[in-house]
């Protein structure tokens, strides 16, 4: 919480269930209610569609809804459900795929990018350079989960190497011990970490 308050850009990196998205959105709503920003912008990469939403059947809303539904779910926990459509119609709250951020400058906004492990390095750079005056960004993701096709590098996976030490940017590392969902999720994350660690240890060579 302090990192978000004290920095313009904060990265929250950790496994599922640690409350990364929920915390970021709670801070966004609090900033809006305190009139620190004029609007909230929530975004996710539509990675399963390759961000090529034009090729999917249906209206734009029907196309993007499955990718953005977790953000809407969190919003409904924090804001009166009846108020959300009005806030979206007036542009006070915007929920949009990452591809829709290109070419924009986002002033006086609290901007949350969720599932950032599914950005490419180019998309991550594009998103970060949308930052405008009076705005704050929180980027969340789990670098152990990557749905990018063809072995593409994750923009979140390399961002610390690029931005570590840059003033006004912070990195929060969350672990399985921070899981706030069902207690089993923390155990599941730890079990996977143990399995991955065991797989990465080279086996001893057999002697003839």
Please report which band the strand proportion falls in: under 5%, 5-15%, 15-25%, 25-35%, 35-45% or over 45%. Answer: 15-25%
Looking at CATH, the homologous superfamily is P-loop containing nucleotide triphosphate hydrolases
Enumerate how many helices there are, as a single number. 7
Q: Give the uncertain stretches in residue-range form.
A: none
In helices, the fraction of residues equals 25-40%
Looking at the overall shape, the CATH architecture is 3-Layer(aba) Sandwich
Structural class per helix/strand content?
alpha/beta
- Strand line-up across the major sheet: 3-2-4-5-1-6
Major sheet: 6 strands, parallel
Separation of termini? 58 Å
Shape: globular
- For the record, the count of structural domains works out to 1
Write the layout of secondary structure elements.
Blueprint: H1 2-6, E1 9-13, H2 20-33, E2 39-44, H3 60-78, H4 83-89, E3 93-97, E4 109-113, H5 121-128, E5 136-141, H6 155-163, E6 169-173, H7 183-200
Parallel strand pairs: 1-5, 1-6, 2-3, 2-4, 4-5
Helix pairs in contact: 2-3, 5-6
